[in-house]
Each structure stands twice: as structure tokens, then as C-alpha cells.
Amino acid sequence: MILDPETDLSFSLTLNAPRAVIWQCWTQPQHLKEFFVPKPHFIESCDVDLRVGGRFNTVMNVEGNSMSNDGVFLEIVPDEKLVFTDAYQEGWKPAADPFMTAIIELADTDGGTLYTVTARHRSAEACKAHKDMGFFDGWGTVARQLESYAQTLI
Amino acid sequence: MILDPETDLSFSLTLNAPRAVIWQCWTQPQHLKEFFVPKPHFIESCDVDLRVGGRFNTVMNVEGNSMSNDGVFLEIVPDEKLVFTDAYQEGWKPAADPFMTAIIELADTDGGTLYTVTARHRSAEACKAHKDMGFFDGWGTVARQLESYAQTLI
């Protein structure tokens, strides 16, 4: 994948947990609820149909407000790569104004799992908005929450 | 799949050719070139990587003008369902202004293959534009070209 600095945001971290456990966390609702949004925000509901084109619908609670985000999985390579987006709803219904496509990549590394998050956007403006909204802090916090939670499953 | 009359266009036809041959035509460049655009327009080049997220890039020639259309496959169920779109380029790079997502469905029926084409759009405006551009005539002509060509392969 060749990144485009105008429209893509990406970072990598080493997480001290095995790849298979990280995968499990990212693909099962009961685990997703434990790390998917920076605390004290939380996930009210999470509906996952883990197949290409299957739904990945979440409702997060931000300071008492419910925020729905409906999407689908685009690509599923167990223990390696998960791609999802809000550009479609289940049944390949295109969203009017999608925000991003997220690519989670996992690889073995000394000390655990090399965890790479990439967010791809339709425009430089959307990318900048996501960056200004706190992409690196937010997804970084989520990565550390994921690591801590994954360690409880080992 | 629940269709939305505001944003989706769809029709079904029976094609007098086996499902497996129709599938072969839709997934191999040398066959796609034979039916994919209404004649006398033609396909100058066709680059297919038949996997989820793989490229489906075509260049068509319309009255001497080359028109590129780069996209990807979203879902591949051999002999049954092919979904592709211009909403992404290879590597899940979102397109700035995608036009549509196409769903080709094949089923056995008396006399051959029940062939269903659905085009889903992001907005009612895009759907209307596609309809006014001649969706039913154009894709209907393509279906008959496909049928004739498929019969030469039996």
C-alpha cells in the first residue's frame, strides 16, 4: 500500500500481546466494547457480522450523547488485516458522505505485535479534519487500551 | 438486499447461456472486452486482479476518446455474485467523487441464467443522472452482447 500524505494518516506501535489475541479483540463485540473508544467515552452497542460486506455498526456514548456509526468490513485476513469503512452500509449501500476507511494491520515483532493503523480519506480536507480532531492521540489511546485489555485475555 | 428506489437502479433478464460461462465472461479481461460496453464503443484495455480489493481498471473508447475508469472488486462469489465500484482504487484508496457500486447476480433459471444488474448510488441525484444517461438501455444492450458472446464459448 502506497500512502498518500495528503489524504492518509498512519502510525505503528508495538503492542505487548500476541497477534491472535489482538485479532480476537478487534473482531468480537464483547471485546471491542472494552477498548474501541477513548475512555471515559464508551460503546453502547456494537453489531458485527464478520464477513466481507458484513455490518460493523457501533453506537458510542460521548458525554451522554449517543453517536451511531454504521459501516461494513471490506477485507478480512485473520490475524493480519482488517479493513472497514463507513462508506457503505450492509448490502453495499453507498453512504452519501463517508468519512474514512480504516486499515488495521498486525505483524509479529520482538515483544509482541506490530500494530499499524491507517485511515484513508476521500480528500485532503477530510484528512486534515480527522488529524485536527485528534487522530493520533485518539487512536493512540485506543491502541494502549487495546494492549491493556488484550493482556487480561492471555 | 433491500433496494432503495431513490438511489438504486436494477433489472433482471434471462440469458440463454450457463451461469459458469457468464461468470467467466465477467471476470476475465479477454472476455470482458467483447461485451462490456455497447458497440460501437469498445474497451481499449482492461486490467483485472480478481480478489477482494483487487483492481478492476478499464479504458473505454467512445467515438475516439479514451475514458479511464479505475475501481476495485468488493465481493466475489464465484458463479453467483460480483460486486465492484469506482469508490476505491487498489489498496482501498477512497475516490474523491465515486459514481456507483455495481452488483451482478447470477442464478439458474429455465432457459439459462437469471441475470440481475443493480447499480447503487450515493444520492438520488447520482441515481437520476445514471438513469438519464441511459442505464437501462446501456446495461440492457451489454446484457445481450454478453449473451451472444457467451454462446460462442459454449
Quick summary:
Chain A is 27% helix and 39% strand.
Explain what the structure shows:
Two copies of one chain form a homodimer. With 154 residues, chain A is α+β, with helices and mostly antiparallel strands. In chain A, the strands form three sheets. In chain A, strands 1-10-9-6-5 form a five-stranded antiparallel beta sheet, covered by helices on one side. A three-stranded antiparallel beta sheet of chain A has the order 2-3-4. In chain A, strands 7-8 form a two-stranded antiparallel sheet. In chain A, strand 2 (42-48) and strand 3 form a beta hairpin. Chain A has one domain: START domain (Alpha-D-Glucose-1,6-Bisphosphate, Chain A, domain 4, 2-Layer Sandwich), CATH 3.30.530.20. Chain A has helices spanning 19-27, 29-35, 124-132, 135-151, and strands at 8-15, 42-48, 56-62, 65-69, 72-77, 81-85, 88-89, 93-94, 101-109, 112-120. The interface between A and B is medium-sized, with 27 and 27 residues.
